[in-house]
Amino acid sequence: ELVLGLESSCDETAAAILRADGTILAEAVLSQLAEHTPYGGVVPEIAARSHLAHLPALVRRVLDQAGTTPAGLAAVAATAGPGLIGGLIVGATLGKGIAIAQGIPYLAINHLEGHALTPRLPGVHPGGLAFPYLLLLLSGGHCQCVLVEGVGRHRRLGTTLDDAVGEAFDKSAKLLGLPWPGGPHLERLAATGDAKRFTLPRPLLGRAGCDFSFSGLKTAVANIVAKGLDPQGRADLAAGFQAAVSATLADRAAHALAMAPGATALVVSGGVAANQGIRTALAGVAARAGLPLVAPPIRLCTDNAVMIAWAGIERLRAGLTEPLDHAPRPRWPLGELVAAG
Ligand code: ATP
Ligand code: MG
Ligand code: FE
């Protein structure tokens, strides 16, 4: 009852093997960061070629680590979207190949559902996490607020109207002269700054619903930078930016919780969930609603294959396998998933 998970939708090449009960037997992630850094962002063609070069060896490695062979697998789960099509084809095709060779089910996993179901992985939340729960997915490519109601059943309550939150961090960090990807660098700089020095906009604060907007914030940062800043000024601006984002996310999350009265928890995931200021703000929101804040360990918040294998296990249990002619989807909203009965 071993499930192999493959992730290749963006700039992480990853493979993992889980037991059907959720025990992680092996996991490996290769970041392509160094390959894309010279270009200041992910280059799709480079990403696809890198997945092609590294994913098969990574599968070999996790099989060895788990002490098994392809014959020991019960199913293969591969990210089939959303993401960069070249990378998706690499992972999906390798996954299908293994499934054909072994005569086992192929599971086409929506990357966002991978993020969404990860908090249900045994050990992440004491006693396990029951549906429905509210997920804030905060990453470089996504900023969404989703009510996770069941396997394949996700209701998007809000999304960003412009930049994703990680993108906003990265763009503002770039304006502050920090290396790409700037999120962690900006957080470190903010630690030495005074958040009250600059008044920055708090987009959509208090507005109904749970949509997000960050481009105005970025513009405000650009305008302040353009006037010239000393080192302390840069730190103050970083702190002000982080405070504005934290306050905005907290406000949006509070609105979303009001839209989801049955929610059992507030869950935060995605690379931006690493940010302590944001976590603290969201913990306050959850506490005021009488709910736990659940944040998977960072390595399971950022792109990984454990989440793909786990989503595969949840779908396999629900009988939701995919035929071998399933085509990867570069765009694949959470609302368009196949759900159980
Ligand atoms: P996606 O998962 O949506 O396809 P991605 O690969 O960019 O996109 P992740 O790997 O989950 O997403 O997250 C990366 C993003 O998280 C980057 O924008 C990065 O700057 C941001 N990030 C990482 N650590 C921090 C931090 N401590 N504070 C703020 N942002 C951070
Ligand atoms: Mg990434
Ligand atoms: Fe992701």
Automatic annotation (TrEMBL):
The keyword Acyltransferase belongs to this UniProt entry's keyword annotation: yes
Gcp-like domain mapped to chain residues: 23-310
Residues the record lists as binding Fe cation: 111, 115, 303
Metal-binding listed as a keyword: yes
Cofactor note: Binds 1 Fe(2+) ion per subunit.
Family named by the database record: Belongs to the KAE1 / TsaD family.
Protein name: tRNA N6-adenosine threonylcarbamoyltransferase
Organism: Falsiroseomonas frigidaquae
